[in-house]
Amino acid sequence: MIALSKPEIGLTKLTTPLTIPAPSNAKVIGRNFIFMGLEVLITFVCTLSTTVVIARTIGPTRLGYFNLVLWLTTITCSVGSLGIPLTTFKYMGEFLGGGQKELARAVFFYNLWAQTVIASALTAISMIVVFTVVDPEYRFYSALLVLSMAPNMITFVPSQANSAAENSALNTRGSLVGAIVYVVAVAVSLLLGWNLVGIAAGVFLYRTAELAVKIGPVLKSMKTVHRVPLPVEIRKRMFTFSGLSTGLMILQIVIWDRSDIIFLKLLQPDIRQLAFFSVCFSVADKLMRVPQTFANALSATQMAEYGRDKDRLFKMTSQASMYVLLGALPILIGVACISGPFVRVMYGSQFLPAIPVFILVALFSIPKAVLTPALTLLYSAEDLGFILKWGCVAALMNVLLDVALIPSHGAIGAAWANGIAQTFAALFIWGRVLVRYPVRIDMPVLLRLAAATLAMAIVVLGIVAMPLSAVMKLSVAVPAGAIVFVITSRMFMVLQKDDRRRLLVLSALLPTPVGSSFTRLVDFLVPQSPVVEVSR
What we know:
Blueprint lengths: L24 H34 L1 H21 L3 H14 L3 H33 L2 H12 L1 H16 L4 H24 L2 H28 L9 H24 L4 H8 L4 H35 L3 H28 L1 H9 L7 H15 L2 H9 L4 H52 L6 H22 L5 H22 L5 H13 L2 H14 L11
């Protein structure tokens, strides 16, 4: 975030923080989990369906160039935001949690104004670059992707405002509308032969639609909140926080967000390697977001608890890490086991060299998936210096490994480089949390979960090794793996009584048919303890 001066209207005396009793978080987290899970499902289905069709139609060579331009515009949006989205989430969450709605409103509009100015400037500069540097063959769709930067960047602020208000349903609506627009645009483009130009236009349309849907409810809710200027001391805190978070955003790009694409373009003459890496990374990233949904749903409440009850914040961080692992281990290890038939069925023979890449990317996504609870705790405590220091070490490691491995190993080398660096970063970040804060990991539960996952992996690999067609292997291995994991989770007692209580709260929030099925699953995984009558 940058220090932009802005006229202050309606100068009034700030209200003092309200003393708010700590509410029961179970229903809030459960509701956010449901809507975030729905958003992840929508995004995953949309991404998988469109990338498969596009990859088969366009081919790995042309898709490589398109993904490079799309990645560059996306990264420009993230870095160019200068930490404003994360600053919005952190301070709106803190002030809403403390009952200071007026300050939360001031933070939102200040950051929205700053983000809009930055988005307009970056889009204009990028358009100049497109028409002076980019090859004419790729210029038209590159210009459309650059235009989509403006709505994409502005959307960050209302999206984080909705998350800070612990109301993920508003973001889910925006994602649903955007997904529908994009799928329709891709289908029309491929049917009419517009190809990459039509797809780029679809990116612009879906980002614009998503902005409209997400910002409307925020503006409506702010109408009833009294207007106050943003105090200078809070601006200073926000400026410091956003400066550090911008540095962390750059590190995130290097370590977590496919910066290896740049090195693949520079160091590897085979452009197909870029497509292999980006397609595998995209699918694995969306799968990783499934178990990460709980941590994301919890993150808004973690921010609010920093302003309410820090003891609960530490306990929530411990619980969140175990629930993320409960989903991450079986999903990501399971998909790594079926990578061969999955790539053959979904992408065809052109993408067979991507199979080992997919295995590596899926397995190395596990540390990334479990990182969110720890990062949210450090962000809420404004403990960013440690992340920045060790993040720089991990980023340097990533770059050096890219330079060493990509020339000779292509996409496989990029997967190793990225995975080793992010595992290193995850270990040090969690080490910081466990040493400095009263957060503890339940090791017996973790070992039981690992045993259940191992049993599932053995069964899935056995099915994949059978002399069956790729379609048949997928059809049998996926349900068999799920059944084995559920049964062994009960056998090893991965979930406990407290988990049962939390899961039943979640089932009560689901639609009746879904909730009933979920309750039966909970009853199987964690049977209700019989009531023991005491004789008198």
